[in-house]
Design goal:
single chain; 363 residues; alpha/beta; five-stranded parallel beta sheet; elongated
Length: 363
Amino acid sequence: MLWDIFCKVIDNHGDVGVCWRLSVQLAARGEQVRLWVDDPSALRWMAPGGDPRVQVRPWQDSAGDASQADPGDVIVEAFGCELSPAFQAAMAARAQAAGRQPAWINLEYLTAESFAQRSHGLPSPVLSGPAAGLTKHFFYPGFEPGTGGLLRERDLPERQAGFDPAQWLGRHGIDPVDGERRISLFCYEPPGLAPMLRHWAAGPHRTRLLVTAGRAAEAVRAACRFNDRASPAWNGPGRLSIAWLPLLSQPDFDHLLWASHLNFVRGEDSLVRALWAGKPLVWHIYPQHDGAHLAKLSAFLDWLGAPASLRRFHQAWNEPGHEPPEPGLAEWAACIHAARQRLLAQDDLATQLLRFAARRRKA
């Protein structure tokens, strides 16, 4: 089938990251894929060299003359982005000429909240506009059976098994030290960052913080300046060392997670990759002004079966006014391992999308 996947960039590391992974995984299974994106600049470092099986198209080209548009067999609106009136009109024209519409899928945000299971696969008739009379369907990625699952490459376990952490770290100028904890940091601006840096600096373990480029690096620099003003000798013993990483491609981001003992992640794409990494993780969920993100975080921790210490740590990391406790890595690792095994028993997102789209085309 020919897939048209539409993406509007809000967070370069999230929305276009998910859409690119999905496009590549569909293409690897023999599908034809066009990724329509309004800002493809992040793909230059996220997917250097691209993928010859995936066509990246400018979003504005889908908004031109409806008579020039040629919708594919499956149309995917990622994360609530809305198709242009011209493309909707072209879909309606194709449906009238062919006697059936393309499979039209609204790919939703990832959540462990119960409405994902209730709403997954539900139809949404279009009642007005150029596509009136057509129907789109909600498709919810998720952690539970009855949802759309998570993105996962078929060869992921084999690649993980053959990974050499020391070799990868060495390529990035990092010499691993016996006995140190390696902690990767990919975050927004968590309220618990400055106290956590002080905690690691004063703790009994040597800690190497592997900081990703962008907002995480800026947040760490700001937290270090704050600590320097509040207590200039906060890292006097030097137990905390910081490695500043460049922008990483998607494969290298996976390698960072595999090479670390604890992974701090944010958003959606990196949370999924951290679950597949199978290492202890802490999620910095995107903060919303109405506090809705906290209910979403709580639902995830419930699904995860998170121990009390991991719940307290998430509270300290995501809400101001809480002192982060010492990470319980052994207990957290067992929890994440069990969750990963549950997920491996489910069909992945691309497989489920293929099956759903094929059913809709026959309907």
